From TrEMBL:
It is a multi-pass membrane protein. Belongs to the auxin efflux carrier (TC 2.A.69) family. InterPro entries: Mem_transp_PIN-like, Na+/solute_symporter_sf. It comes from the Bacteria. It holds the Pfam family Mem_trans. This is AEC family transporter. Coiled coil: none annotated.
Length: 307
């Protein structure tokens, strides 16, 4: 019950308030969603990733184990959603939208505080979550951008789009500066803190603006299918992978919990930025966040059996 109340009070209600403010602001001022989207992709998201990686302390062994789990989980979910989409007969942009809603999940502003609640401020499990967050920041800005632009015949244009995204440079830069112990002067670090703190707010307002601008044609069956794959099949696959790899204890628990969180804001931001089923993507992010209060609580209960 403690986890249920925590997720409700610290994730669902605050996120819902921010999304509601975005809806209200759109109704009042007709905010430009493209501008908000670009702020997220080109400023807030890359600065947040840089700050978290620069401040983290990650061992090579931990990183390799976590990346192995992440790669297997990503591949398994990718194949599962492809199989389901073939059965459902999805076509064109809906294929990319459904796939992104399942393979991209909220590993930052949802999973990080959840990790620290469940594991009571454990630095080891936090490091695991940061590695997964790094990959979940990199993939939407590389593969995700490629997938939503795959219909373009101009491969060079798509590649230029990917290479223009700052987050793919922030990750190696953060690791290099941390490895070389390069300090960041206070006049630069202060705005980094300000900008990174604004990511969650801006991303949620963007989602609210998108929801406010929709005609609200509810895509119930598609949205629920995505929620089941993300919130129920995702952690089930996570359980299977840690069992197959022989991972036990706290690391196994942290990995499974990391795979149980709702759809990432990145999937909605991609959909908005590149006009790829934005209504479906926004509905999935919102609904999966709400339903996660029940599914994540169940996963927290179940991971005690792999301790």
């Amino acid at each position: 019950m403690t986890y249920f109340v925590y997720i409700l009070l610290n994730n669902i209600i605050p996120l819902s308030i921010m999304i509601a403010l975005g809806v209200i602001l759109y109704k009042a001022f007709k905010l430009d969603i493209r501008t908000l989207s670009k702020l997220n992709f080109y400023l807030f998201s890359p600065v947040l990733v840089f700050k978290m990686l620069y401040e983290s302390s990650l061992s090579l062994q931990l990183m390799m184990q976590t990346l192995l789990f992440f790669s297997l989980h990503f591949a398994a979910m990718f194949l599962l959603v492809e199989f389901v989409m073939r059965i459902r007969g999805y076509q064109n942009s809906m294929i990319t939208a459904m796939r992104n809603s399942v393979i991209f999940y909220n590993s930052a502003n949802y999973a990080l505080p959840l990790n620290q609640l469940v594991f009571v401020g454990d630095a080891f499990t936090l490091s695991i979550q940061i590695i997964i967050m790094m990959m979940q920041s990199l993939l939407p800005n590389t593969y995700g951008v490629y997938s939503v632009n795959a219909h373009n015949k101009d491969t060079r244009k798509t590649l230029r789009t990917i290479l223009s995204l700052p987050v793919i440079y922030m990750i190696p830069l953060a690791f290099l500066m941390r490895w070389l112990h390069i300090p960041i002067p206070d006049p630069i670090y202060t705005p980094i803190n300000y900008i990174s703190s604004a990511f969650v707010c801006t991303a949620l307002l963007t989602l609210g603006v998108q929801l406010g601008s929709m005609k609200w044609k509810l895509m119930f069956s598609d949205v629920m299918l995505s929620n089941v794959l993300r919130l129920m099949v995702g952690p089930a696959v996570g359980f299977a992978i840690v069992w197959l790899l022989g991972i036990h204890g706290t690391m196994a628990q942290a990995l499974v919990l990391a795979s149980a969180v709702p759809t990432s804001l990145s999937s909605a931001l991609l959909a908005v930025e590149y006009d790829n089923e934005p209504e479906f993507a926004s509905q999935v992010v919102f609904s999966s966040t709400i339903f996660s209060i029940f599914t994540v609580t169940l996963v927290i209960y179940l991971i005690q059996f792999i301790a």
